[in-house]
Amino acid sequence: MTQRSFFRVLAAGTIMLLLIGITGCNGFYAKTPLTRTSTEQSNAAIFVSKQAPVMVSMLVNPERLQAFEGDGELSKLKTNLLANTGINYQEDIKPWLGNEITLAVTTLDIDRDSDNGQQPGYLMAIATTQSEKSREFVEVLFSKRALAGANLATEQYEGVKLIYDNQIPATEATPLEKEKVKNQNPLAGAAVGNSFVLFANDPKVLREAINNVQAAELNLTSSSKYQQVTKQLPKEALAVAFLNLPTVAKWQGLKPEAQVYDNQIISLVSNSKGLLAETAFLAKEETSPPSAQLSKPVGALEYIPAAASLAVAGANLNGLGDSDLAQLWQQVTAVLSASPQDVISRLLPPLADVQKQWGINWKEDIFNWVQGEYAIGLLPRQEQTTPDWIFVAEKSDATAAGISHLDELASSKGLSLNSFTVDEQKISTWTQLSAAVNKFDQVKERESFAIQAKVLGARADLGNYEIFASSVEAIDQALTAKNNSLINSRNFQDSVAAIPQPNQGYVYLDWTKSQEILERQLPILKFVEVLGKPFFKDLRSLTVSSYGSDTGLLKGGVFFQFNS
């Protein structure tokens, strides 16, 4: 029976425990938020180099996730991941497991020799509450590996006993030895002091981790950047991730052009409505001052129907492209997709299509004169793949001139401006006229034609707002949305209530309705969904916002709301 890599087992376990714990299957989560008694951040950061690409820490004992099992995913995880390892979780791990499990990519190449390929260094630090039992566990684990065919070595390094697989050169190994170890991945382990057990994929990684403790200036806790961003973390965070963004991009073979920030820290906080993932990006240098902040959801959302799959709302649309909210979205998408596309193309593809059809520039021709509140919504339509859109703008002194300019642009493209009334509300449309063959006239012996009108855009003047839409049907939904608007939706209200105020606005996504759009824009999401199936199966919506006033720090959050 082959033995799977214990390091890979624990790594996968850490990630999946997080996903299972924060999901709260079968609605249990929404009623009972998971909180953390400790207010400390990662203690294992002392083992991690300040140059490390990424460090992820779960700051709660996995046993506290037991109440969130729902359909039994946690028990299945323990059974499946530890299968064929000879390890019993209840007997061998549970008795000593503490309140932190940290996983770090310590280096992109352990031996720093590009000629023999790139082998990242992986380190896992597990907190222990009973040092003797955890030391016994390390000894037992490697004894089982030896019985499975591993050739072990031990050494004392700076007062710490290291145990690791001593790889036999392929030229010296017998056929039997090769057969025994071919399914084993390298593993090194050590019990350090009375607080942590370390595992790595190479003894060099363990030695460097010990060096980082003894030479404090080498470890992550001594980094001024790390200290700066950790000050932004909520004390009740259940999990924390710290990323060195340029190194992560290099590791993944990405070359994003929109690399404005050096470091990022992410924390997960639970509340009664869902999960808030807060993030802070540390800029390479001071950025522009944040855009105007709002203390409540914008009134323009009254005209966005609750059926919207995606909505963006804020103030001063003139600065959307340079706003913190846009930078937050663009930074994430640039890293994930290595694409420099602008925020409109990435976030609202139907509006990007309008730019091409009309030959307009949203920023120059429309955004420049929207100085007050705004709201943009996408409405799915069953009969077409491209959703309808609604754009609501608060009036200002520049509104009349802006609309007149749009009429001129439409006219230059051969569009006709028409008006009609629906329920006493005047609606104007930009229409493309074309002739189509109607039938053959037998008397005149020639074809007759019918004039067809295709609406490319509609507009309505309503109180303090101008409303634009992609179709007459969409603008009708906007005009009648007050009875069932997004801003009055309980789901939306619960989501924005979890976002700190004041803030720079929101991007709200109904996950079920917008999943296809997001997957087209960010293909990596499909992979993430497979990895985090327990998380995504109950996901109802997510809301992105930015907040804070520090010019060197982009701070924001994503609130995940789950089905109850």
Can you give a write-up of this model?
The chain is an alpha+beta fold and 564 residues long. It contains 19 helices and 20 strands. A hairpin with a 5-residue loop joins strand 19 and strand 20. The radius of gyration is 29 Å and the shape is elongated.
Q: Which descriptor suits the 3D outline?
A: elongated
The percentage of residues in β strands lies in 25-35%
Task: Please estimate the helix content.
Answer: 25-40%
> Structural class of the secondary elements?
alpha+beta
**SS elements, strand count:** 20
Q: How many helices does DSSP assign?
A: 19
As residue ranges, the low-confidence spans are: 1-32, 335-341
Radius of gyration: 29 Å
Mean pLDDT value = 77
How far from one another are the termini? 42 Å
In this structure, how is the largest beta sheet organized?
A: 20 strands, antiparallel
